[in-house]
Amino acid sequence: MISLAKYLAGSKQKAEATLRHVLNLLLEAIETHAVHGDDEDYRQFRSGIRDIRTRFSDDTAAEELLIVAGAVTATLKEYGERATRYLHSQNSEYKYIVSMLTGTVRTAAERNGRSVTELRQIESQLNKASAIEDVREIRLNLRHCLQCMQEEICRHESDAAALAANLQQMLQESAARMKNVLPQENADSFAGLPERISAEPALIEAARSGRPYFAVVVVAVRVATVNTRFGYSAGDRILQALFAHFRKSIEADDRVFRWRGPSFVILIERGVPIIEVRQAIARISSVPLSQQIDVGNKSVLLPISSMWSVFPVLSTGQSVTQKIDEFVRLHVPDQR
Fold this sequence. Notes:
This protein is of the alpha+beta class. Helices cover 67% and strands 12% of the residues. α4 packs antiparallel against α5. It is flat and about 75 Å long. The termini are far apart.
């Protein structure tokens, strides 16, 4: 006969095994079915959940599982907040696009009092819309109004060309705005640092100038691990500290751009061989850096390290862009 102690021990082991299995299934579901907001945040979130899943095995004690659950809760909360802000930004931009279009069409249709009144009503409805059903109703009303406007435009062909040009300009401006819709933290963390969309034309312009330009790409290492253990705000502070160190160590005329993930690019003009540029960047990078992070009632001092490379900007900026992307993908996990 089995003793009572062995029976109870076996029951506890089965219960812990079941708990581990349930937690693993929940983590898999969270990673697979997470809301897809900003691409970069989505990749980092899934990577963070995968890292958390690797923390426990069949031998992990139940007490450790509580720590894992806490890390999952914090990661999910921060990603949820970022995704919500991203979706709200998109929603605001869609409203802005419709508002621009209705305003432009209303200007062209000022001779038709009925259509102008309908468009004003649609603008008012758009500002009050809060649910998808409201937006669908507005879309139907807008379609009917635009059909009426089409008939009016046909009677004024001389105005149609000017209207089409105005609408085309508005749509192009809107497309450019939508391309830059990112969570607010990106702008706050780097005090308005220009994004990649500004870096690419700057690289092309530097290449065409014929002057000795170089592109310095800097990647903060292990930021994904910091995000997983201490939250995205901690990772942002690591990258901010690294950026501030490079900013004060380069010349005032050098231009710095946020690239992607934990990386930024410095566009510099130097009339020296590339080996001297690399030696200068190596001296900057070799300075020991650290950042203090508050975790609960404790403070943790995290070391800051980086990987970097220097590329000459020659003939066309496109090849430099590709080299920068390859370097970032090589040193940042899950950047495919």
